Amino acid sequence: MTTKYSIECWIIAPDQRILLLQVPARPGKHEAFWQPVTGGIESGENPQQAVLREVSEETGLHLTTADVQEITAGLDVVISPDLTVSKTLFLARTSTDDILTNPDEHQDHQWTDPALVLEALHWDSNRETWAMVQKHLSAAGTDHAA
């Protein structure tokens, strides 16, 4: 079995809306769907470096390590009997909601009211990580994303 390592980052705007990116449909594979920033960890990178790179590549936002917080690591998602993705989950706050989506990866973006995020998500793994983010925010006393 192969394990690929990746990051997932939930980005919160100043008004507490959550950034979702739309992955285009791939005929024969899947319809278009919404997700947070996701991406692989490249050779020689640690998860912190990967999340800063992926956020920049996918949104044009140039965050610093102070802007992102690791929530948990080692979230395993079994894709097939031969492939598991092991994710490190991050939360980031940004001072702007002005982003530039990379058209090679996403066809659209939306800043979503936290109460509507769950119903927008396609994958169970994203629903599970969104629940972790909400629990983290609630425990931190910033229950704006409930």
Please supply descriptive tags for the structure shown above:
3 helices; 7 strands; four-stranded mixed sheet; alpha+beta; three-stranded antiparallel sheet
What does this structure look like?
The longest helix has 16 residues, at 124-139. 25% of the residues lie in helices and 36% in strands. It is built from three helices and seven strands. It is globular and about 40 Å long.
Query: What low-confidence regions span 5 or more consecutive residues with pLDDT below 50?
Result: none
Shape: globular
Determine the strand fraction and express it as a percent band: 35-45%
Share in helix: 10-25%
User: What is the spatial order of strands in the main beta sheet?
Assistant: 4-1-6-5
Report on the biggest sheet.
4 strands, mixed
Over the alpha carbons, how many angstroms does the gyration radius reach?
A: 15 Å
Q: How many distinct helices?
A: 3
Counting helices, strands and paired strands, the structural category is alpha+beta
Average pLDDT, to the nearest integer? 93
Sequence of secondary-structure elements: EEEEHEEEHH
Distance between the termini: 37 Å
Total number of strands: 7
